[in-house]
Write a structure and sequence with these properties.
- The chain has 4 helices and no strands.
- With 94 residues, it is an all-alpha fold.
- Helix 1 crosses helix 4.
- It starts with 6 loop residues before the first helix and ends in a 6-residue tail after the last helix.
Length: 94
């Protein structure tokens, strides 16, 4: 589809905004987003990403509500739409 999100070009730079707290060095709330297995398993409160279901994905809920990221620039509507498209397409990692 025209909304297809390219992981390397579109999604990875957005996830980099998350991996300071949810990456190799720190896994706040038990969530790690820098690899597929950990990202899809989720954190202490369950899955953050539900492949195929952006509306049911906690990651989207927290970003749209403005709770994430807690510091620094919030994601733009266009950036959120990229993440939603990626999740809708199955949240595939390369």
């Amino acid at each position: 589809s025209a909304m297809a999100a390219d992981f390397t070009r579109d999604v990875a730079p957005l996830l980099k905004k998350c991996t300071g707290c949810h990456g190799a060095a720190a896994q706040t709330s038990g969530l790690r987003l820098d690899n597929a297995a950990d990202a899809l398993r989720g954190g202490y409160s369950g899955p953050a990403i539900r492949p195929g279901d952006p509306a049911g994905s906690k990651m989207i809920e927290l970003i749209e509500s403005g709770k994430m990221p807690p510091a620094g620039a919030k994601l733009t509507r266009a950036e959120i739409d990229v993440l939603k498209a990626w999740i809708a397409e199955g949240a595939k990692f390369p």
